[in-house]
Design goal:
The chain is mainly alpha-helical. The chain contains 16 helices and six strands. The strands form three sheets. A two-stranded antiparallel ribbon has the order 1-6. Strands 2-3 form a two-stranded antiparallel ribbon. GO terms for molecular function: calcium ion binding.
Amino acid sequence: MTVWRKLWCRNLLAVSLLFYFLLHTMDVHARPANMSKSPASKDDNEILPADHLNGMKMEMDGHLNKDFHQEVFLDILRSNLLYLSQDAKEMQRWIMEKTEEHFQEAMVENKNSFHAVDPDRDGHVTWDEYRVKFLASKGFNEKEMAEKIKNNEDLKLDEETQEVLESLKDRWFQADNPPADQLLNEQEFLSFLHPEHSRGMLKYMVKEIVRDLDQDGDKRLTLSEFISLPVGTVENQQAQDIDDDWVRERKTEFEDVIDLDHDGIVTMDELEEYMDPMNEHNALNEAKQMIAVADENQNHNLELDEILKYSEYFTGSKLMDYARNVHEEF
């Protein structure tokens, strides 16, 4: 075996190890210590709008998408198996391709989800039809709920479920394109589940995030509003470290990426531009940011050694050290 092939195999082993650890270390410090979330059930995932939106840099609830760098990073690793070096334009192209891939996956998933909530197969879903399926996914008796809704009876829901339903109802009517008929077709249902597919829903998502974070009611976000921690107590040093990381990450994102004119204020337009997954300018900035961090030889490209060495920056995972050490030993 030639020296080149030996080096190739060793790099391939290191990349394979990196893939393994990436798949097992997602969502690191994505939200404050007192706001951890339980994974949704399979049924929930089929008919509920996802909080995490692949290819978008912010979650539906206003938290930073900690998997965004990982999603980009995985594509860069795949490309390295063939090219071993990428400049900003190449990385921008891969980011855009990955986003388009997520869009296509969402459309396929939406078709299955739509059929799950459209029992009469008439091509439209009413709010009541969706509400019955949602409550069934939460453990309520489907026939009983359908009968109560039909007769306009009190559903006797717990407070948390009722709040979720109210939020979903608001989003439902936002997805109902003019002229509003309170029915969603398959395309409108796609906007309901995946607001990144609709400019109108993207604006609604921005409005909701600003509403949740805006403390003085001016419909703009200051740094202090953007990094303010939710009310709650921190029980130990590990939880404090998580909160400190959360604040630091949001501060950096606010100052370096979202606040385009660097005036200390984020407007709805700036937030919308930041969250638009098909914004090519954002993709290029993301690529340049990754190169600026890891380009040790200053050739304006990312090469395999640099990607492996700075994998912790791209993934936020301490377990990346093991894959990197394997590579360095070779």
